[in-house]
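pinging the channel bc i need a second pair of eyes. not urgent but kinda urgent?? the chain im working w is below, pasted from the shared doc
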Amino acid sequence: MEDYQHQSFRELEAWVKSGVTLVDFESPWCSPCRDQKPIIDTLARRFKGEARIIELNIDDHRQFAIQLGITSIPTLIIFKNGRELQRFVGLQPAEVLSRAIENVLGKHNKEVPMEAMFQPYRLANLDLTNRFVFPPIKTGYGMPGGIVTDRQLIYYRQIARNGPAAIILEPVSVTPEGREHPKQLCVHLPESVAELKKIVNVIHEEKRLACLHLNHAGAAANPMVTGTASKAPSVVKCLTSGKESEPLSGEEIGTIIAGYTFAARKAKEAGFDLLEIQGGHGYLISQFLNRKINKRSDRFGEDRLAFAKEVFSAVKKGAPDLPFMIRISGNEMSPEFGIDREDLLPFIQMVEQSGAVAIHVGMGSSCFSPPWYFHHSSLPEKPQMDALAWVRGQTNLPLIVTGRMGRIHKIEMILQKNLADLVGLGRPLISDPDLIEKWQTRQYDEVRYCGYCLQGCLHRLKNGEPLGCNLNPAIGKPALEPTPNPLKILVAGGGPSGMSAAVYLGQRGHRVTVAEKENHLGGQFSLAWQAPGKQSMREGLYALNYCTRTTAESVIMGRKVDVDLVQEVQPDLLVWATGAVQNFPDIEGLQDQYVMTSVEYFGGEKEVKGPRILVIGAGRSGLEIAEKLGLQSFDVLATKRTDPIGSMMEMITRKLTLMRIEQMSTVTLMAHTTVKTFWADGVEVEQDGEKKRLAPFQTVILASGMHAAPGPGKDIQMAVPKLEIIGDANEVQDIFSAVHAGYELAQRY
């Protein structure tokens, strides 16, 4: 980017009078401006030669700012030939700014690939209203026995309304022994048709197509759900569950194949428009195809395609007029256990000859590469693109691509390279069911972008909780009704719980004022995305920020809630959402060290001095700090009094983080270790009862837990008719709990 900081007032006026220019008014003391900077740098590279991207320190160009009426920062203005076309106030996602510049440059027309995604598409004999598909996602919303609940019906209606053309339901197992979850939908029971039809009717009411996903998990089945050992072509240990499967008998294989016929017939009776057969992700069909797993000596081992052939025949026998598609993993991403291309290619060729109408391409294996199966945020994009390109080269069938597809630029790239025909949106629609409609109407700044963190969805399911979302507490829940009693509400704190309360209370019709002591909204959410592998969470923060500013009646920055402010606003209800503060451990000599908190570290408030850094507390934040410092080549030691290291982290995130740290020679993790005393020439720690003397550290970072920030004083409590304390200010938990606390408060008022 060129340096415009030293341009005169007249020179800057001249710049904006020619061509297309984006001016970003910022300041180094402004935290949101620092967050905006990497996006501005990206735009400068992307539009080099087409548009000028100018960063201006408002303190150095106050005359220019005054002339343009700039009252807060960051403020971004797009000019074309001297005329202001669009103005943005506050943090903006790259997608919003990029699309705005492209609009001004005239790049958007009907030839742009993304526009085609909103047009009807013919898939065999099916008319799709657009080119989006909702892939199968386990919800945990049902009841044992496949009984459909109201929450499931609300959930599928939310997804279907103005949403993807086809909705693939959460997986069903064709026999009870192939199930993975106790609340999984069922297709094998006498009442299954009636239960499934409830969901089909909801989807059809929204004028969308309903697809049933047929599967048998094989080695990935859950013995705690099925009550039996998992069964596979041969003995194999599923690394995810740690359970070893038993080999299927010929009779059991026949029962499973008959189950596919029965399931297809039931799908037809329930009114489904098409079927999807799971042939990938390390499930049973893939296990039969895979020579690393299938060691049988019978005909299902001699011809590894035999099982899949019989499954396809069984499905066509059960529902001969129902179109079907096949799901595969483009790459199971497990060199030791995953299916190789030499086994996958004959299957793809067989699929093409089978009468299937499309191939649905995902990644990973449920047993051997869960991070790829669930498309974790920290994984590179290239393996998915390479796998998709390879599959594209092997078949003429339409391809559906699924996995971290919730960004327009990625969809456009795939379409431009002709890698797929349709796009699957799963978690992005859970985060924002209105995503497709917002994209089509270009309401980009209103999109609640999924961060692919797995924290609110997979993490909860694995812990026995129903599917949720960090950013969307309303998923699967009835719409909030307008309040019959509008209140004037003051929210103290603009972190996740405060912003959530403001948004949902405002949606109900309350008059909300938000007061935040810092000069930006977000609280600790504005720091979380800075951890390695979490950058995709940043856009979710932007959306929550935007919704807060557009829903609240007033947002006051840089001011704490005190008695004076309460008397000015005169609220009917004070919502105290001031978050949490760092816990300071009582360690002798700590006061003589150069110390910063985890919040100060991620906020860039203090300089890290090296080369040796001690991180006290190797939980979630401490582990993220240790990795980030390790990437900067600091010599890092992170301690934790208890086990496990990285507690409170989503399990896949924790595993990936620990794997990356293991590759760092300068990072050491010490579990069961208590820091006892600091001296001028070193520090004493105790690990498993053994005292050790360590060399001194130049920086000590405290990540030893948080506790609730102080509550309102008695003078404030006396000045308000009603008080609610929510989020971390009430009980320190996580971002999921904080955002949901704001929503739950709105439900009560």
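so Residues 1-7 have pLDDT under 50 and may be disordered. and The CA atoms of residues 596 and 701 lie 5 Å apart. — does that match what u expected or am i reading it wrong
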